[in-house]
């Protein structure tokens, strides 16, 4: 599989990104190693990753010099920043929430994770986006399965890179990354035909997943409105991905890292609801892991006007913002609060929580915005 440090992709990045980012494109990358991860059925997920020593953002990689590391990290954060900009420009609710939280808690606001959706077919699934993050030192962690929704996901841990002093969001501590994919081969033949029609016509669009997300464009043509409706009847996740592609599905505020009274998720939820924000109520507003250590909530997704290829314009679901509080693990309960670090807290994700948060873009939840 071709990784994002190929010369062809570098050229595409140089011509496609805004001029403010082009100066960083001269950074060179070491060749990656192939990681093969288990996937559904007989399919194998292959992703190209640099080793910890060779990753351009690895703190142990001294051969390139500190200036190269700074430039490489700057480029990586700039790409994340472009993804975030597209996300905030399209979705007024996340933008308003972030502004509101910052008005109360004006210190560093950190992201717990970024999330993306993909089609698990022909190389357009998890691996299409994972290669970008793996090239920059991320580590593949656990697989999560959602059989009822015909989805699977992998999450990736960030490299140990210091945050930009005073930096928030994508300029703060690097977030985890959560990438899910639709198990297309488990869908009806009609749904499979629609998805194949667009992914196959996209040619090598799968190689430019991160670029697509940063530019806010689909790698395939806009679908017919009837095809969107067809997919929505079987899988609202599939319909969302058809019209949003690799767009950032959500960012997640790390609640416990806030410095104000909002650093408890129940208080943050109450604060947001009092301000008129609709929170995803599927399974209850607060989603709690069985061990109690991971507590999550999310807003209901925004909707945007979308013009389909047949000229029909409809309102479609876009993205939302999530909130996560990770509690201190039992073995660290006696560590003084001032000494608690992220490594002392519950890590990873929980299937039961994520399954309900997926529904933040589903019609049942969207209808509550006007209900």
TrEMBL record:
UniProt key word Iron: yes
Work out whether the entry's keyword set contains Mitochondrion: no
The entry's keywords: Dioxygenase, Iron, Oxidoreductase
Record-listed E.C. numbers: 1.13.11.93
Region (Disordered) location: 50-69
Pfam families for this protein: HGLS
Q: Which SMART domains match?
A: DUF1338
Its family remark reads: Belongs to the 2-oxoadipate dioxygenase/decarboxylase family.
Q: Which PANTHER family match?
A: 2-OXOADIPATE DIOXYGENASE_DECARBOXYLASE, CHLOROPLASTIC, DUF1338 DOMAIN-CONTAINING PROTEIN
**Name recorded for this polypeptide:** 2-oxoadipate dioxygenase/decarboxylase
Organism listed in the record: Arabidopsis suecica (Swedish thale-cress)
